[in-house]
Amino acid sequence: xxxxxxxxxxxASPFDKYVKKKKLxxxxxxxxxxxxxxxxxxxxxxxxxxxxxxxxESRSLLRSGPASSLRINIRAVAQYAxxxxxGKAASDAVDECLRALEDLDSLLLQASRNNxxxxxxxxxxxxxVALGALDNLLQTVPSAVLDxxxxxxxxxxxxxxxxxxxxxxxxxxxxxKLASGGGGGAGACWATAxxxxxxxxxxxxxxxxxxxxxxxxxxxxxxxxERREAAAGRAAVAx
Length: 239
Fold this sequence. Notes:
By secondary structure, the chain is an all-alpha fold. The protein has one domain (3-238). The chain has twelve helices and two strands, in the order ααααααααααββαα. It has a two-stranded antiparallel sheet with strand order 1-2. The termini are far apart.
């Protein structure tokens, strides 16, 4: 099995066996992670604009942070869509997204090995397809749930005091989900890279924590889990 197949689950059934066996969490727990994955793909796209892109580092972005649990998250969203009569559209979006990411992963691997046929323009087109497919999938989410997910994702990106108090519990949950490398489960989600190296949940966590710190440093608002939990405590006392 190829590394990208192991990463994105190309040989899996329309809805991941993990999702079938494990009772789904509420839909709103998956949406923010999908939105943050879109951010991650946009960051990856920007990294390709450098004169000499670091393809190995760009490829590692597909194995860290929100992207490491994307397959579980989007198939959970698709299963909710199926229960509301939108299963075909959701399943098509999931398949399109995963195919594009498999192609992108393969292109990045070829480029890291100095294969001249691996075009940056084609890489960008694959990212665009994946982003569009995720947009289509999110269209199946009820508007109230999507708005809530956007608010939580916004608070995670650039936290403000009012968001932290209002969404503190959801933010702590999202922190846990992203750190675990999976849909609320243990941090055992991993993929085998082209060189046979295993990327474990702890590495996912470290990579995304680093990326999160860099993102928050740019907006000048460092927000740690402890700060969020403190906000949750203040909100509890106030009530």
